[in-house]
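Morning - zinc ion inputs below, output right after.
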Amino acid sequence: MPRIRFTLPEVKQRPDAPPSTCPRCGGVTFHKHGQVEKAIKGLYISRVTVVRYRCVACGRTLRRYPEGVDRHIQSKRLRALSALSWALGLSHRSVSNLLTALGSALSRMSSWRDVQEAGVGAMRALSGGLRARVEVVGADEAVVKLKGEKAVVGFVMDAERGRLLGIDLLVERDRAGFTEWLSGYVDKFGVKAIVSDDLNTYKPVVEELGLEHQICLAHVRKNVRRRLNEIEGWDWHKARIWLLLSELPEGGGAELMSMERNVREDAELRRLVVELSDKWRSLRRHKSARGLPETNNCTERMIGRSKIRYKTVRGYKSIEGMMNGLRLRQWVWSGEDGLCVGELVNA
Ligand SMILES: [Zn+2]
């Protein structure tokens, strides 16, 4: 299980300094113009001071909040903590119980709202620093529950950098649905090649979009090994198929096609030979397409960690709520250098 390192935002009692520039006139000199007490929901701090300043040049007054406080009633630290707790696996009810125990009574609804805010922030953080052009992507899907129904969520990764490009709800797990999903990335990033798990749905889609396609070899080999083991006898043919799959020679597809005639007596072996022959090109595409990896490991590593945790969520009640939750979890479980959770509540 990966470790999560994080920092939470600080909360101070008073603002440290006047504003740096006036948003209306660009002035830099301010006079203090009174102060008010603000009641907040926070950890161990329930009141802070908000100072009003007046711009000397244009007379505009500005409110200055202390660090970690804004218009919300909850401090940024509390919002960040409740969203993080949920993303780490607690239910909204448990988040509410936890924070109530820590002296900051928070309703389940507030916890839900905090997750929504943090999810929007997570998407902002995830999409920051993406390259404008990404020619090779990895794609994968996960099944989640939405209002008790199964829903499919698609993930697209920058295969070279291992960064998430996007999470989308797929209305249909069919050709039209996949084409619509992936064409968005082709248009936006200039995608030219894709690596996916062994799933037939991708084949017509990549052909329609004119993409190079690599099927994840780790997946295929695992699957083929299992199927070969289940077939009795045929040792020479099985060894030959395994050798072809290990070496991936250019003529392997043709050899499998002619092998089909000799293995017709075993329906399962024949099916396997035909399937491999059909997808031969996509098995060895990485040999000629630059930058195309031979497995989809980058995508799986990325979503695998959070995918397990999707199952622990009892289900989502709305599409937007679900997407925000997924993005937040993705952000939390993919942060390698430590998470600055305050980033998510600094809109
Ligand atoms: Zn001004």
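Note: The mean pLDDT is 88.

O.
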